[in-house]
Each structure stands twice: as C-alpha cells, then as structure tokens.
Amino acid sequence: MRELKILVVVLFFTAVVYWGVEPFAHSQMHPHVAPADFSFKDLGHTVGKGDFIKGEELVQANCVACHSVKSVGIQSAMSESDASLAYGVVPPDLSNAGLLYDPAFLSAFLKNPAKAMLVEHKFDQTRTFPMPSYDWMSEDEISSILAFFHSIVKPVSDKALYEEACGRCHDMKYDKTMSHSDKAALTAYMGTLPPDLSIMIRAKSDEYLSTFINNPQKQLAGTSMPRVGLTEKAQNQVISYMEKVGDRKKAEREDLGYKLIAYMVLFTLLAFAWKVKIWREVH
Amino acid sequence: MAEIKKATGLMDWLDQRLAVNGFIKVMMSEYWIPKNINFLWAMGVVLMSLFMILIVSGIFLLMYYKPDIKLAFDSVNYTIMQEVEYGWLWRHMHGVAASVIFLVIYIHMFTGIYYGSYKKGREMIWLTGMALFGIFSAEAFSGYMLPWGQMSYWAAQVITNLFGGIPFIGEALVIWIRGDFLVADATLTRFFMLHVLLLPLVILLLIAVHFYALRFPHVNNQDSEEFDFDKEAKKYLEGRKKESKVVPFWPVFLSKDFFVVGIALTVFFYLVCFHYDFAMDPINFEPANNMKTPAHIYPEWYFLWSYEVLRGFFFDIGGIAAMDIGLAAFGFANVIFMLLPFLDRNTMHTAPAHKRPMFFVWFWLLLIDMIVLTVYGKLPPTGANAWVGFGATIVFLVLFVLLPIITKIEAKNEGAES
Predict the structure, then answer these.
(1) What is the ipTM of this complex?
(2) Global pTM?
(3) CB–CB of B123/B131 below 8 Å?
C-alpha cells in the first residue's frame, strides 16, 4: 500500500511537470489560430458557370505569353532559367490549375493576384507583382477561364502536385527534387531563400502545417510566402508527400513499437513472477 | 605464487586465476542491502540500464554521424534517420533515453533528500552523485549540439555566452570555450569530443566511485534505521532469511529491480516509438541558421529550473545589472545541492522527512518551487510570467538559506527531548 502511495505521488509530480513544459508551455508560446479556411471567405468571390471554349480562347490570348499549359500542348515561351531571372520565380504550368486551386480563390486571384495571395505588403509603385491584374475582365470571362482549366484536369500524384504547388520555390533535398528557379533570383525576389522542406513534417505540428499552407500570414505575419489557394484535397496531397519524404520510417516505427512494448510487457511479467518467488523466501 | 591445481571446471579454472568466486560474493551474492525498502531504491539500477542504452545507441550513431557543420544535420536526419536500417530507432532511443534519464536522476536525488541519505557517513555518495548530475548535464548539453539544428545552435550560442558574465576573464573564456568568436565548426568538433570521449570517461569513473562510496555506510532504508549489517548478514547466511534485516544484492535485490526496470522500459519504448517530441524538439528538425533567431529559445526541460533562476532577476538592483545578479544566482543554484550534507546542521540524526516536521515542509516546498521554476523557465518571460519566475527564484534562494537554521532548531529540539 505504501509503495502504491509513493507511486501515485511520483506519477502526479511527473505528470504536472510534463503538462507544464509540453502542452501548457506550447499553448502559451504558439497561440491557437483559426482553423484553415478552404472556402477563402475573406475574398468574397463566387464562381458562375462559364463556357470552356470561350475560356480556352481567353487563355490563348492572355496567359500563354508567360505560362505553359503542357497538357494541351502549349509550351513555355521562355526557358526556365530566363523566366526565373525575369520574374524571380518560374511561372507555373497551368495544366492542373483547375485541380490545385480553389475556384473562388482563383477567380479572385485573376482579378488581383497580390491581394488574393496576401503579399501586397511586398509590393508598391516601384516594385509590382510580376503578373498583371485582370480586373478588367467580366465575371463571365473569369468563369469561362476557370471552366477551361476545369475541363482539362487529370488526377496527379502527390509528388507531382507538390512540385507544382510548392516546388517552384522550395527544395526537397531528401527526395532529390530541387526548385527550378534560379537561386539568386529567387532569393532576391522572396527576400530570403525559401527553406528546404525535406523534414519540415517533423519540425512543424499538423495544426501548424494545415493553417500555415492555407494562409501563411496566420502563423507568420509579414512573411513573403504567398497564400497558394490550394483546395483541401490538394493540400492534403502535399502534406502526404511531405510525410512520405520526411518521415518515411513512420510505418516501420509504429509496427516495431507494438512489438517492443509487447516484448517488454512479457519481460516485466516474467520478472514479476521471479521476484515474487525470490521474495517469498525472505519475507 | 598461488598453488595451481588441475581445474575441476571452468569456474574453478577462473577462480584459481582471478578469484572470481570471492569477487562474485563481494559484489553480488554477499553484498548486503536492507530489506525495508520500496521501489524508489530501484532507481539506481534503472539509471544504469538507461545509461547502458545511451552507450550502446551512441556507439551505433557514432558510426554514421559526421561532426562538421556542413554535414552534421544531414548525417543525422538523412543518413541515420532514413538510409541506415533502424538508424531511426537508435536515434530515437538515444534522444528519449537522454531526456528520461534526467527524470530518473531527479527522482533518485529527491529520494536521497527525503530519506536523509546524504548525511552521517553518506556524504561521499551524495557528492559523487551530484558530480554525476553535473557531468551528465554537460554530456546532455554537448550532445544536444551535435545534430546542428536550430535549437542546437541557438541554445549553444546563449549558454556559452553566459560565461561572458564572469568578471575579468569572461570575454576571453567565451572565445576559449567556443574556439571561435561565434559558435562555429570548431565549437561543434570540440563538443563532439567532449560528448563521445572525455565526459563519458568521467561518468564511468564517477559511477564506479559512486558505487564504491555505498559500500561502507551501506544503503539507507525507508525508516533510516541503523543496524549492524554484519550481524544481519550472519542471520541471513545461517538461513534465518525472514528474520534478517538484509538481503543480498543478487538475486534478491536485483529480482525486484528487474521488475521495475521492465516497467520503466515498457514506458520507454512507448515513448521511443509513439511519443518522442518532448525529448526530440521539433524545432531542432530545422537546420541551424545563424541569420534566423527562433521566436523562443529555451533549454531542454531538465535545465529549465536553473535557467529560470538565471533569468528570474529581470531588473537591476542597487546598480548591479540584472544579468550579473542572475548569473550569480545561477552559479548558486548549480553548487548549492552539492553542499546539502553540510547545510543540514542536524548532522548526527538521519530520518525520513515525514519524521522531521520542519524539514518535511521544506522538502515539499523545494519540490513544488522547482516545478514552478521548470514550467516558467519555458514560458516567455513577459508580464506576470516574469514576476512568478522572480518570486520562485527568491523562494529557491531563501529555502537554502533557511535549511541550516531549521535543521539547527531540529537538532536542538531533539537534544532537549532525549
């Protein structure tokens, strides 16, 4: 009985210390933010039903000077290194734009890219966002462009999706996937070299990643990382790829964990039986 | 030379050459431990088991680790964690054991304080134990630097900087410790040497002395009862095992320890595979970047109480800079436990704390105060937090000033009673 009482005291103080330095301290250091908003309510955009044939014409007329749409055979006008030097970061291929980006976000983005991406603080009269605002377009035209992008999507792998959404700026060294942008141009454009994401999955909590990718300003006010406008499904694919690269032994760790614990439980039971036998002689 | 006969078996062959039978008796089967003990007496063997885990896992990690600021981070996080078969397991075991061993050290230490196992002949056990605590702290700190993550770098920067506060030699001392003006490659290489060679050697030596120091005053028991070990051992050897107050280290004492070690390691492997963030801070999975200061810099949990004593004084007093007072308080906190046997002025009477009313209150206040310091050592030191930290620091210092006084009164009262 006395041992049990001592055990309760030891466990109690251990639990208090653990609670204090882990959950409690972290809640104080990293205050909770509102959960990720995949409907991008702050932009107040809705998408009408557009005509994808008209959309294709609009894309041909307005987008392909800078962007490629490889899935329908439209190649980039510039090489990647030239584009990177001209814009800081290589402009994205638009083949999967209808899959990656939320439609409400995308329509707000076309009208005012810097505003939708929450990076207006980086730009002013002398330094403008590389992509022009298409705020002169009608709602119908915007909807038609979206309808076109939607009409050409095909499912993509987690890795391919990551490369399009994140891989133009970030390296993933441990999967030998490097950003296509020129490092110096990218650094000048972003203000700092975007970090390698190889084991970011171990460095950040699930909650942090989910809110940060959805809206970087929420966790890191003033950051030059743009809000990319990924749909919930696309974001989950990105995170799943990050976990595959950064925590690739997870399944092995959990599987072995049960075995190690089972082994130690067996050891403990045998040790207990032996202890009882030995102490019977002396008590 | 001894007379060597034809051996009757392997043990006899060894015994004639190494006196193994006598050695086993002295070390194991006739090394006497009091019977009146509880599971807290198993913490020594739990510590030994964890230390063995640290040595073995450390040897495996050493095969792939590269002590170079350009290579260290990837050698740990890519080569060991992803390329090497079960490399992640050795790293997780090493990281988690390093954290858990401090919890057990603190339990072991507070057990010693509670039962008065630090005085009346047991001073050397206490002193070597506290020396072990000190060297283990250095071992943990140097090891934390090796993965060269963000907190490796910034904790090293902040902690080595502390030595700059020492009068006259401070600035030169910091450069001497770092081997450079900043924490840099030279710092990493020398801390690597300390971590894998010099400090483990010192620890092994101190453990031997710590065990040796137990032999003469013997292990304490939960009523701090004093008895004649030779007489009790004789009873045991005559077969009056139930009547004897002692049991042999092997197999009786260890059979119980194995059971406790079993429980401890069950929890340990759960932590290793499913719940390791407390010991392997996520922020250290970002590579060191001297251009990017983390929002919060804090040491590992086991250093937090003394870290909080360091920053508890956040305002200047009487023209002395807050930082200098803090450093002095920090120095005080790091040596004061060492002096415990000499601060307790009731030197000739050993009893568990529940039989020493004033000391009992002192003990629990100390424990609670250190937990408050630990928690507030991690919180940002702003607003009310700073004042709680300051208050807890004052309580800590005052408790150690009061200890000689209350133990003196205790001795006087006991003298009056008898």
Answers:
(1) 0.96
(2) 0.95
(3) no
